[in-house]
Amino acid sequence: MSRRSALVVVGLSMAGVAHAGDKVQYQAAPAWVASAPGIDVTQLNDSAPVMQIFDQQHRLEAGQVWSYVETGMRMVSPQMLTQAGTLPLQWDPSKGDLIIHKLQILRGNERIDLLAKGTRFTVLQREQKLEQFALDGTLTATVALEGLRVGDVVDVAFSITRKDPALAGQMVTIAQLVPAPAKLGFGRVRLLWKDGVPLQWRSYAAGTVAPAGAPQPQPTILPGGYRELSFPLPSPKPAEMPDDAPPRFKPLPLLEASTYADWAAVSKGMAPYYATAGAIAPGSPLAGEVARIVAASKDPRVRAAMALQLVQDQVRYLFRGMDTGNYVPQKPAETWSLRYGDCKAKTLLLLALLHEMGIAAEPAVVSVQMSDLVQARLPSPAAFDHVIVRATIDGKTLWLDGTQGGSRLADLDDVPPFVTALPLRPEGATLEPLPLQPPGRPAQDIAVTLDSTPGIDFPARFTFRATYTGGMAEGLRGLRAQIDDEKLKQLIGPQINGVLGANSSFDRKLEDDPKAGTVTLSASGIAYPDWGLDRGRQRLPLDWTSNNLDFSPNRARPAWKAIPVTRGGFADMRVVKRIRLPDGGKGYTLEGQQTLPATLANLRVARSVALAEGVLTLDDRRTAGVDEVPADRIAAVRAEVARVKANPLKAVAPANQPPRWQTVQAARADNRLAPILEGYAKAIAADPDDADSYTNRAWFLERIYDHAGALADLSKAIELAPSAELLARRAGAFDRLGQEDKAIADLDAALALDQNSDDAIGLLATIKARRGALDEARALLDERIALGGDEKLGWQITLANLLGDYGKPDDALAVLEEAIAAAPGNATLLNQRCWVRGTHNLALEAALKDCTKGIELTQDNAAILDSRAMVYFRMNRLPDALTDLDAALLASPDQASSLYLRGVIAKRSKAPDADRYLAAAKMIDPLIADRFTRYGIKP
């Protein structure tokens, strides 16, 4: 049994044979085959079905299954000629034959018999599944259909036979049901078996959980003592199912037939192949391994863990399906000698080791791919594709999988996510549910430390460690030898991004710990915690569990109301995040869900949160693929999820948290930014040829208003990867530093690369206007406005702002009047008109109405409050202006125009903090004083 699907197209994997062989045979169809209707190609038009014949007939007799298939396919396009021009057929020569009955091309009134012309199939000796570590003995016979034309019909009929001695006379077959709305000229599935053979059959076309009392077809008695079942194709269109329905509820286009009476018969029939008596000879190498384990510990759990590690780590996986290998394992001594084996071989080896140590254990078959479908299947070995060990120690059941990797003592109680198992016992057994649960060690265990002690307004130095166990560790371990630093960056980058978002990393490592059975990815770097102003306080979202939680099952249809929500695929992750806060954490608090229910939707979750000694610690774990949500719990679970998502966990900064410009001033003075700059330097050293390394540091330098430093990094990034975006960004740096000529040169270069660069066009127009070429600036912007579309409004606002700033307030208001007529009630337009009037001391009462109305229309009102403060200033209502400026700075603490106007007012009232506000505004925007001078406003 291999880790591959037991359900295969047309049921060819379960066909049987009387005379197995590796040569293709050519014979007439057997007499028991019922002929399909002929095809009259002259009567076919473009609307005729592509598949004119799809006929499957299976005869089950004396332990042999004979599968006959005929297909007649119409070639409707040149592309189809390419796809169908070579015909491949696969079979297992150790268990049966491939017999060709017919190979014809139907063209008009012609019937070209290719077999009569001497056409023969070529047998390919190559194994088809080497990439999947499988040797199944399957051969492929192919034939090229020469001279095929569009409009031809290829009519081929063949049989594949199979008789597997491992089944001891039992028979199983699977056939494909083509459901509507697919179109067929003629379609059929036919079963034929001897009267008295206890054959069961089941169609899954309506879903494996079929309505009670659903009508079942009845067999017809034929002459000669045969029974016949016939199913016309296409089968009825299956009922729609919600995407999140468990697999057992979803229709499968399959018909299955089996002679097994029940699951106990399957269990009893397979059990003898896993007998271990005499499997480990005294004095043999395996006996030595047993002695070593026994000497190492008296604890049976430790011994079981050591035996499991031996099988997992010392025997590589390779499926062997030749001869009887699909069901019969190779001997333990052979497995140990070869040092490879499939799930059957590994299970038998593990059983032999455990039995030698006196530990009760038995094999159990499971399905990797079919999950909870197994319980709805007909009893047969075909329901399974994998075998593991069911051991019992101190009354506790253990499920041990020799094909996994990295299992250690800490993992011994883990339950693999196979849902259902069938123990194989000489007396027979029934299906047994697996008690799914989170594993003892997280499959992915992530620990992150963030150093935010310099201040929450700055990036944070981080360390990252992701420790993997089980299959994830095995996958990484296999890659270790071929990973260079660039590949390691590509591997670890998404892991860090998933927990921290954007980052700049260095010191990246991959470490293997064979003793613990783990592989660890680690890195250090710079991250960007997402602190943001919310309700007057800085807040940091922490709740990745609820943020990524989506539970919205649709059960509106009456037919869906009883369908539970699937458990989903297995996934298990723990994230422990530690954040070192500024000022020893003084004044920092938590809000939101500090605890979570043990089960949330179809997840198992666990959370602990602590805030002590200046460190915030969040420990979150979530495991998927363990729990299913019953239908009668869906409404309650949906409400519970909504409650959790409505109150996400956040860290809250102190109420007296200073604005960023104050923090920047203080940080520059006490050199607390040195570790961050050191981190950026290491990130650049780790990736010196990556432009992002420099643009990331440029972003930080821009945030601390080091425009000269940002300029240098942007220049290096442009050397490595020039782009219109970077050139426009560097032009902004040149402009802030008063180097207009260089800024213009960069903007011209940016527009040469991208003539539609919005940033470049906007800044170029501003510089032209500042230099007195207002008409040229306006022409640039008018050209963008003339394009219309969604961006028109933004360009109108830009033009109005430029005209107002450079002495054309009437023209600015005219532009805004036109825009407002097209979009009345737009708060941004009202704000711009208020600003133009306020800065030019025009129609102040009307300006006041515009700003007040705009404030009423939007919650994002920092800019509008700033504009209304300007109007109050012009009206000499300085207390009102200060009230609005304080409110604007509460919402947007680094709004340079608000800081500058507040400094102007403070200067006039001789307030002691006037120079501080003015300096902050100039630090943020070096051109702010010039702009206010144009408005006639000076400190």
UniProtKB/TrEMBL annotation:
Residues 67-230 form the DUF3857 domain. Keywords: Repeat, Signal, TPR repeat. Residues 1-20 form the signal peptide. InterPro entries: DUF3857 (IPR024618), Papain-like_cys_pep_sf (IPR038765), TPR-like_helical_dom_sf (IPR011990), TPR_rpt (IPR019734), Ycf3 (IPR050498). Gene3D superfamilies: 2.60.40.3140, 3.10.620.30, Tetratricopeptide repeat domain. This is DUF3857 domain-containing protein. It comes from Sphingomonas pokkalii.
